[in-house]
Hints:
The protein is an alpha+beta fold. It has 3 domains: 203 residues, Histidine kinase-like ATPase, C-terminal domain (Heat Shock Protein 90, 2-Layer Sandwich), CATH 3.30.565.10; 188 residues, no CATH class; 34 residues, no CATH class. Helices cover 31% and strands 20% of the residues. It is built from 14 helices and 17 strands. It has an 8-stranded mixed β-sheet. Strands 13-12-14-11-10-17-16 form a 7-stranded mixed β-sheet. A two-stranded antiparallel ribbon has the order 9-15. A hairpin with a 7-residue loop joins β16 and β17. α3 runs antiparallel to α5. The radius of gyration is 28 Å and the shape is elongated.
Amino acid sequence: MSSSAATLPPTVNAFPAKTFFVNMLIRDIDLKDAILDLLDNCLDGAMRLHSTTSSASLDMPYANRWAEITFNKSHFSIKDNCGGIPVGLAQESAFRMGRIDKEIDKDIQTVGVYGIGMKRAIFKLGRDAHIQSTTSSDKFTVKINKAWMEDDQAWKIPILIGQSDLQDPGTHISVTELRNEVGRLFSNETDFETELKKAISAYYGLIIEKGFTVRVNGETIQSTLTGLLVENADFGSSAGIMPYIYHVEKDGIEVSVVIGFYRNLPDENEEEEVLAGRPSSDQAGVTIVCNDRVVVYADKTRITGWGESTVPQYHTQFVSIAGLVSFHATNASLLPVTTTKRGLDGNSQLYLEVKEYIREGLKFFTDFTNKWKRSPQERQNLQSQAKAVMPTRIALSVPEDKQSRVNKGMGGWKFKPQLPLPREEDPLRQIRFSRLQSDITVVAQYLFDNPSVAAGEVGNKCFDDVLRKASK
């Protein structure tokens, strides 16, 4: 072979620049989502333990599992008792920039697909990180410092096998040398801590309901996920307040749609108060869950079908309507979720098919509220017997003989309740007018000896008094 034939062609340098990962990768995620990515990793560990623990409850699979987040203007820490990271996984993939083995966690219902969450979160937070992990069989410590982050040639990170301060299986990540903007957000000068707690209570509400404990700077976070009203526990044939349900299992993914009322229908005064922004209506709307993580919370937009097709746009009249849509799959790439895991891929063919049933459920209950809007007095006792039940439990409770098979699209099963209707023989009509607040106060004092009685009550009393006189 000639020397010229053996000569290799010239090459160009194509290895990645470290600064791209450290500085550019973090631009498409905000600090709150970066921290939630780390919390996702804790939950993935809890799911691995659940999959290997036969004693774990189906209703409370994350009982006794916890994650604790602490931070101030100079330090961040997240610690859990969720089983830890095996040394082999740490050496081969956990610290790689992207997932290289699609078989990792292939039987676990996680939401991680790309393998960038932990690294991106650390880069977002600061310049010095200390990761410790202990499993039932091994332990390690890894340190990532500023020098490594700035060295384009250094891609390997030393691992101290057998060293960890954790006594029980779990992981502890601490970050110092915080970025300037991070330190400011972590200080007492902003409401970042309050907003993070709200996000966790919403986006991890289902996980918390299933037994997981999350603490932020010492405060245990409570779930804001709401139950839906169920009047007939046996899903009998009699009319009652019950949710609309659709569910299907196909091609490795399980879907359920549960739409209903989470509270009593509002009266006229409540609707006006909601319009004025006084009581919270945050729980109304549709929540989307992927593998137990909430990716869209209490949505009231076209994302979940409001204002599309025959479904009206969200209005305070519909403040009692809520829904939970759940997707479960061991192959996380099938889920209609974005890389941030807090966003919905609205163009997913799977989601577009499921959205048809979300709209059907919403239309079912918006039509119902329209019928009862004409009967404000009769509807006051409408839901007196209904009890709130978590949507995940409702979806599993409907007897097969009460469901109808869906033959189109993805197929599946559907339950449409028989809701109570107002009396037709003597229909109620709404009387609505406005008066000066000062005049209403005068009349309230005269009728009730209380000037602060609600305007609706004052109007009802006036009409009832006149009706009684007119009927004599």
